[in-house]
Amino acid sequence: MPDSQSERPAVFLTGGSSGIGAAIAYELAALGYLVGCASRRGTVPFESDHIVAISVDVVDEQATRRAFTSFAKSHCLAGLVNAAGVYQSAPSADVDLAVLRDVLELNLISAVRLAQLARPYLEAGGGGFIANIGSLYAELGVPQTLAYSAAKAALASITRTLAVEWAPMGIRVVNFAPGYVETELNSSALADPAVRDRIARRIPVKRIGTACEVGRLVGRILDAGCEFLTGETITIDGGQRVRQ
């Protein structure tokens, strides 16, 4: 990998302050990428010369455009990772439509916005990757997850559409769908041993996944240089989806 930051292949990553986003950032940095970690906090839970912390709320269109453009113009953009997300739980009959819009804005629309911003830079550089972080919930009927599940299902569909449209530009688009993975979003619920045990019993490997496992998978697949892989959703769930 080149020594200069401006020459090193760079990745713009959202949701990098914690959880799966931070784990992916760590893996990409270890692989030699310069990672622009964008989050509301503007922090990352580790130190690395390969990390640039960026403070931005990705639901703010103008702020996102400024932050992304500044990063992409200063570095050799190789990819985009959309890992920012929010989870809301409520009975479907009671879902506030304002909350639904907020969940879709952060989990879905921000990913489309950034993909559109990234496309010309990736095309000019001869191609690259866009990775979306979806969810196993996109394929299941999970009670009280209407907004989150809908956003993740749409993200998988968008992945397929962009992959087909942008393949001639050398841009590959892949969706990763984790199952139950322990992060800040669910740490309070999983602190209850009964809840943790009930979830683990549903998973063939008999445990909840870790953000580091997802980070390793995403990092290595994106770094593999396999341009023939595009438009797919790759599930990492301990075998839960295929369990009979």
Would you kindly provide a written description of the structure presented here, covering whatever features stand out?
The protein is an alpha/beta fold and 244 residues long. It has one domain (9-183, 209-235): NAD(P)-binding Rossmann-like Domain (Rossmann fold, 3-Layer(aba) Sandwich). Helices cover 42% and strands 19% of the residues. The strands form 2 sheets. It has a 7-stranded parallel β-sheet with strand order 3-2-1-4-5-6-9, sandwiched between helices. A two-stranded parallel sheet has the order 7-8. β4 (76-82), α3 (97-124) and β5 (128-133) form a beta-alpha-beta unit. α1 crosses α7, α2 (61-74) runs parallel beside α3 (97-124) and α3 runs parallel beside α4. The radius of gyration is 17 Å and the shape is globular. The N and C termini lie far apart (45 Å).
Helices and strands in order, then pairings?
Elements: E1 9-14, H1 19-30, E2 34-39, E3 51-55, H2 61-74, E4 76-82, H3 97-124, E5 128-133, H4 146-166, E6 171-178, E7 181-182, H5 187-190, H6 193-202, E8 209-210, H7 211-223, E9 233-236
Parallel strand pairs: 1-2, 1-4, 2-3, 4-5, 5-6, 6-9, 7-8
Helix pairs in contact: 1-7, 2-3, 3-4
Quickly list its features.
Rossmann fold, single chain, 244 residues, seven-stranded parallel β-sheet, 9 strands, two-stranded parallel ribbon, globular, alpha/beta, 7 helices
Q: How many structural domains does the protein architecture include? A: 1
Overall pLDDT level: 94
CATH architecture: 3-Layer(aba) Sandwich
Q: Which residue ranges are poorly predicted, with pLDDT under 50 across at least 5 consecutive positions?
A: none
Task: State which percent range the strand residues make up.
Answer: 15-25%
Could you state the order of secondary-structure elements as H and E? EHEEHEHEHEEHHEHE
Overall shape: it is: globular
How many whole angstroms does the radius of gyration measure?
A: 17 Å
